[in-house]
Design brief:
This is Restriction endonuclease subunit S. This protein is of the alpha+beta class. The chain is built from nine helices and 26 strands.
């Protein structure tokens, strides 16, 4: 690693020593607070932790609603700094490459282009050492609602090399981060391919069985096709009962026998597993709560919401005593013929996903099912011994793919850390760019 010949103390703990010819100045020396408004004709911009400032319409994963009247939105020019002060502690800020408007809740500043190269400032302010500073300056009762005052923000000391050196640093970082981002994208694509391969193999086991030489017959269901001749196709309602959950929002404060109960929400039910890290509670009369108790081996299936939340299923094994479920989560109770784990497995495979999406009630970006449609889900029912063998086979497949996926995920984490370190060391002078 190349270093500068001479360093000097910066006087700032997080910054340490900086090259002797660099300046250390407060952020206000190169930025000026601005608040131009009344340009509703300009495109709306968003600030992303991962990307900085982008056109809001360029992505479909931003669900923050834009006001019908944007005349009060702040005008942003190319090279302006935009800060989401509620999420500054996450690094949600950037120098804008676009002209547009942003929420009036954001901090907007012009930058002194003679003293600071805009992209250098972008790299610097989003670097890991600075994010730690914003964390210390942000305050609030809840992390998700932390705030940061501009008066504190503008006093933050920043390392500032000569303008020509800033340009060299930017050119270096543009090239190196692009190379790292390409490597990360390739590994993320590998994860997608591995996930697809895992899904294909599990779907094949659930719909075709494990014997490649078995006699097949038509299932009678268009999106399933042929199945082993000795398998049955049975609507879910013929082998189970479906229990609806408790509706939230009702007040029982006037009734006697009120007790607090844990209950499961849509967020707790993932595809093939339960996330019990955050369990909500509800106060209900004891006699009322008994209608919604979960029982071991219930299969929990989500009603919907976003398309990825439609028909997710996982088995419940009584992990929490006297646990309820809300009305957006169905509890399927198997009566005969099929193993609960096998039904849970079916809810996640391709043909069941297609059934849920095809029969769902849909609005823009939202989809939901109901008890009737859930009850009509066509189950493929092999003999019990074969169900057990398929479950074991699929569990082994998942374990094998989890090892592969975990390895790739670690490689991505290493690349991201490499990128973060490279940026931090470049913009603070720990690495000399020639």
């Amino acid at each position: 690693m190349l270093h500068y010949e001479l360093y000097k103390p910066s006087g700032v703990e997080w910054m340490g020593s900086v090259p002797s010819h660099w300046e250390v100045l407060p952020l206000r020396a190169v930025t000026t607070l601005k608040s131009d408004r009344n340009r509703p004709d300009l495109p709306v911009l968003s600030v992303y932790r991962e990307y900085g400032v982008i056109l809001k319409d360029s992505r479909d994963d931003n669900h923050n609603a834009t006001s019908l009247d944007t005349s009060n939105y702040k005008v942003v020019n190319e090279g302006d700094l935009v800060v989401n002060k509620m999420k500054a502690w996450q690094g949600s800020m950037g120098v804008s490459p676009h002209r547009g408007i942003v929420s009036p809740a954001y901090i907007t500043c012009s930058t002194d282009a003679d003293r600071v190269q805009p992209t250098y400032l972008h790299y610097l302010l989003r670097s890991s050492p600075l994010i730690g500073v914003y964390n210390a300056l942000s305050y609030g009762v809840r992390v998700g609602q932390w705030d940061m005052h501009y008066e504190d923000f503008k006093q933050i000391p920043i390392p500032l090399p000569p303008r020509v050196e800033q340009t060299r640093i930017v050119s270096f970082l543009d090239k190196k981060t692009a190379e790292i981002d390409t490597a990360i994208a390739m590994k993320q694509r590998l994860i997608e391919l591995l996930q697809e391969q895992k899904s294909i193999l599990i779907n094949q086991a659930v719909t075709r069985g494990l014997n490649p030489d078995v006699t097949m017959r038509d299932s009678g269901v268009e999106w399933i096709g042929q199945i082993p001749a000795n398998w049955q196709t049975i609507p879910l309602k013929y082998v189970s009962s479906v229990q609806s959950g408790v509706t939230l929002g009702k007040s029982y404060s006037q009734l006697n026998g009120i007790k607090s109960y844990p209950y499961l929400r849509v967020a707790n039910v993932q595809n093939g597993f339960l996330d019990l890290s955050d369990i909500a509670e509800i106060n209900l009369p004891v006699r009322h709560a008994k209608n919604y108790f979960l029982k071991a081996e219930d299969i929990l299936v989500t009603e919907g919401g976003d398309i990825d939340k439609l028909g997710r299923g996982a088995c419940w094994y009584g992990e929490i005593e006297e646990c309820l479920h809300q009305n957006h989560v169905f509890a399927i109770r198997i009566i005969r013929t099929v193993l609960p784990e096998f039904v849970s497995l079916i809810t996640g495979v391709a043909y069941a996903r297609q059934y849920f999406t095809t029969t769902a009630n849909k609005t823009t970006n939202l989809a939901s099912t109901n008890k009737t449609k859930l009850g009509n889900l066509p189950l493929l029912v092999p003999p019990i011994d074969e169900q057990k063998n398929i479950l074991s086979h699929c569990e082994n497949l998942r374990a094998q793919f989890d090892v592969l996926l975990g390895g790739v995920a670690k490689e991505i984490a290493v690349l991201k850390e490499m990128k973060s370190t490279l940026i931090a060391e470049s913009v603070t002078g720990k690495l000399r760019i020639s």
